[in-house]
Amino acid sequence: MAGANSLLLPRRNENPDFDSGAIFFVGNATVLIRYAGFTILTDPNFLHAGDHVHLGYGLTSTRRTNPAVEIEDLPPLDFVLLSHLHGDHFDRVAERKLNNATPIISTRHATSYLEKVGFTRTRALKTWESIDVKKGAANLRLTAVPGTHGPGPLGAVLPPVMGSMLDFGNEEVGTRLRMYISGDRPAPRPSARRPRHPVLARFCRSSRRRRKAPDCPRAPCQPRTAGSER
Prior knowledge:
The chain is mainly beta. The chain has a single domain (about 20-210, about 220-230), classed as Ribonuclease Z/Hydroxyacylglutathione hydrolase-like (Metallo-beta-lactamase, Chain A). About 10% of the residues lie in helices and about 30% in strands. The protein contains three helices and 14 strands. The chain has helices at about 90-95, 110-115, 155, and strands at about 5-10, 20-25, 30-35, 40, 50-55, 60, 80, 105, 120-125, 130-135, 140-145, 160-170, 175-180, 200-205. The strands form three sheets. It has a six-stranded mixed sheet with strand order 1-10-11-12-13-14, with no helix packed on it. Strand 12 and strand 13 (about 175-180) form a beta hairpin. The longest helix has 9 residues, at about 110-115.
């Protein structure tokens, strides 16, 4: 049985492909990551252009574009990685239409709410805490890293944010891809506890940057060598 800091996924994955993967940009901070047999959805937001969300303290946000796909068109998910609980990162569509047995990894602030509304497989991480996710012959170690929600005093009154470091591999091949996901904004300063190994892929995004879905969103995501990191 999986322990408190582990998640065993039931689907078969006996020959994971560590040589290629895909990143599908849905919109806002919502991205579908497919690598080594894992299918991961970040910060699900499926509102349409013109829809509003309330962020608290009199703040609102308006969706400017439609999502690249509807939530009903997603493939089966292994888990959802949620940086924080805000209506522009986990919206009312996700709350209503996601399978409530889908594992969701996030902050304690977020998982406390999600459990109250019926999600049954939440995992809360503190900063620098890790969870080991296993799917067949592939392993993923997911570590919560510092995240920033807003500049200066604003960040202190907004919900806590979790950045993530994802290490994909297994005992045979070691770590094949390390991916950094910033959460809402990149942490303002390098941390003294930054990982020892180089980051092979970076994914920094903010819900405040409005971008159109790429023309070819299913292009392979090629792991970068440490020497090419910039």
